[in-house]
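Worked example

This section walks through a single chain of length 232. The input is the sequence exactly as stored; nothing has been trimmed or padded.
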Amino acid sequence: MPDIVCKIESIEPLTSVVSKIVLNPQQQVTFKPGQYLRVIMGPEDKRPFSIANAPLDNNLLELHIGAGPGNTYASEVLDKMSEDQQIIIDGGHGKAFLREIGPRPTILLAGGTGFSYTHSILQKLIGQNSHEPIFLYWGTRTLEDMYAYEELMELHANHKHFNFVPVLDQPHDGWKGKTGWVHKAVLEDFVSLEPYHVYVAGRFEMAGVAKEDFHNKGLMLEHLYGDAYEFI
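Given that input, the structure is written out below as tokens.
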């Protein structure tokens, strides 16, 4: 897989610690929704980030990079992008891409910036005008961390097959939505997960517990996808 030079189209803050980066590859990048690219910082230093958009005719790539205090792994990448105004990548990588094997209801489950993975898949599903239900459960610490909240609420209101369920770990006063572990919100809402395809992105601890709990709820493990499952 060849290395590809990407010009930096824009770097935009989404929250105090998360940035949206738009890359303009100088060669065609082939990937499937749900795959990731690797930013090449050195010969033995290749750092993976989910591609946050579905494949586009303009070949642009979108990343959502969280670089909070102490996260040098991500902040070094952002600094290099800002200073050099270009970056070298390879991709797409990953086996947790969207399966297009006939109509089937879909659950997308994201923790934090794992939303970028689910956003790519969501864009593709919405663009297909599928009549199958799509559920997105996104868990963040606070509502302020849920940087696409308004966009998703609007999509929820305007697309009858899409359901957005935000889940907060530290809800503000007056919050009437779901709280706690995001995967437990799914368990509360479904009698059985047997009919669904489920795509998961977030911390390994959450992904591991979700796998067991979802299987106990009827999900066939061959219909559960997430890059974390290659490592746990």
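What to look for: The first strand starts at residue 4 and ends at 13.
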